[in-house]
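pinging the channel bc i need a second pair of eyes. not urgent but kinda urgent?? the chain im working w is below, pasted from the shared doc
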Amino acid sequence: MAKLITLEMTKTYATRENAIKAVEKKFPADSNDQLRYMVLQHTDGRWYPVFIGMNALQHGIHFHFHVLA
C-alpha cells in the first residue's frame, strides 16, 4: 500500500516568484550544480520550494529547503 507523506512547511512565500527568488539567492543558477526543484502551493495559498534527488542532499539544501530523495 502506498504511504502518504505530508510535508510540514517551516518557510513559505507569498508568491511563486518570491519562492524562486529565495532559491536563486541561496543557490544561484550560474553555479549549474544540476539541482532540480519544484515550487508547490500550500493549502493556505502560499508557495514553497521542494528539491528533488540525492544531489540536493549532497549540497546541503536540506538545511534550507525541503528535499525529497
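so The helical segments are 16-26, 54-58. and DSSP finds two helices and three strands in the chain. — does that match what u expected or am i reading it wrong
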